[in-house]
From TrEMBL:
Subcellular location: Cytoplasm
Taxonomic source organism: Methanobacterium alkalithermotolerans
Full protein segment contained here: 1 to 292 of 442
UniProt superkingdom: Archaea
Protein name (database record): Signal recognition particle 54 kDa protein
Molecular-function GO term, any one: GTP binding
EC assignment: 3.6.5.4
Keywords, alphabetical: Cytoplasm, GTP-binding, Hydrolase, Nucleotide-binding, Ribonucleoprotein, RNA-binding, Signal recognition particle
Record flagged with keyword Nucleus: no
Any one Gene Ontology BP term: SRP-dependent cotranslational protein targeting to membrane
Subunit structure comment from the entry: Part of the signal recognition particle protein translocation system, which is composed of SRP and FtsY. Archaeal SRP consists of a 7S RNA molecule of 300 nucleotides and two protein subunits: SRP54 and SRP19.
């Protein structure tokens, strides 16, 4: 289970392999290498220090359990501390009330619309019947994009490109689909300015009263992810995060910083442009990628 992580920190881990006890110098060296890897992966610097402090404290204090080598022990600590940060376990969406109202948030270009398609397909495969409401009155193509998507998947869509009142659209959509098991609300990703966008999200959130607000974060944006997460979570309590575009070279360290900023777990990741390029979030793989 911890193989990748060890492999990725190769040099230091090699040194560790032959030792029967891990002294302070070695622990500090491992920590330094982890720090380097995390910073290169765009993890926020304060978070890197917080993380290394907890790893160092445990590595120096705790004796390896019987049968566990110092190397395995330190890998376990690194792994556990990082997983703790990510919220322990991969969660799915648990549909426990009807209609389950999902509010999608995210800046334009983050992959929000594509991700709505992906989540819808995922939920359909589980036997649910989601409906989608388009409240984006700022991007003229948003409704068209959703229309195409929903037609392909045979999903009901409510929207009205003539209506420029996002709150009214949200209300009408909610009314129309109140008998559905899941209603997904697409929202605008841009506005006159960011303040207005966040104000609109706050208002839509109070109209929709979402069961779960999902923030879509572009995995390639690095440090800005943290600020985006904070801004959106001030508009409405963000329940979970989906990180997109992890099919490229991006390591998603920004997303890790976003998670730590608002304490919402990552539930899924996007790994391509197609509707099936969508995976349940796997903390272990994510961490290996960050440190690799
Ligand atoms: P929105 O403005 O947030 O609704 O973003 P879109 O859903 O229109 O996506 C913006 C661009 O990102 C499009 O070209 C998508 O195909 C692309 N995209 C979305 N998710 C992913 C992903 O997981 N991987 C890759 N490679 N591209 C993605």
């Amino acid at each position: 289970m911890l193989g990748n992580l060890g492999k990725n920190l190769t040099k230091t881990m090699k040194k560790l392999a032959g030792m029967s006890i891990v002294d302070e110098e070695v622990v500090k060296e491992v920590i330094k290498e982890i720090q380097r890897a995390l910073i290169q992966s765009d993890v926020n610097i304060k978070l890197v220090f917080k993380l290394s402090k907890s790893i160092e404290e445990r590595a120096l204090k705790e004796e390896p359990p019987k049968g566990i080598t110092p190397k395995e022990h330190i890998i376990t600590i690194v792994y556990e501390e990082m997983v703790k940060l990510l919220g322990e376990k991969a969660h799915e969406v648990e549909i426990d009330q009807k209609p389950y109202k999902i509010l999608f948030l995210g800046l334009q270009g983050s992959g929000k619309t594509t991700t709505i398609g992906k989540l819808t397909r995922y939920l359909q495969k589980k036997g649910f019947h989601p409906a989608i409401v388009c409240t984006d009155t700022w991007r003229p193509a948003a409704f068209e994009q959703l229309k195409q998507l929903t037609q392909e998947m045979n999903v009901p869509l409510y929207g009205d490109p003539e209506n420029k009142d996002a709150l009214d659209l949200a209300k009408k959509g909610l009314k129309q689909f109140k008998k559905h098991d899941i209603v997904i609300f697409d929202t605008a990703g841009r506005h006159k300015d960011e303040k207005d966008l966040l104000q609109e999200m706050e208002e839509i959130s109070s109209v929709v009263d979402p069961t779960e607000a999902i923030l879509v974060i572009d995995g390639t944006i690095g440090q800005q992810a943290k600020d985006q997460a904070r801004a959106f979570s001030q508009a409405t309590p963000v329940g979970s995060i989906i990180v997109t575009k992890l099919d490229g070279s991006a390591k998603g360290g920004g997303a890790l910083s976003a998670v730590s900023e608002i304490g919402a777990p990552i539930k899924f990741i996007g790994t391509g442009e197609r509707v099936d390029d969508f995976e349940i979030f796997d903390p272990e793989r994510f961490i290996s990628r960050l440190l690799g």
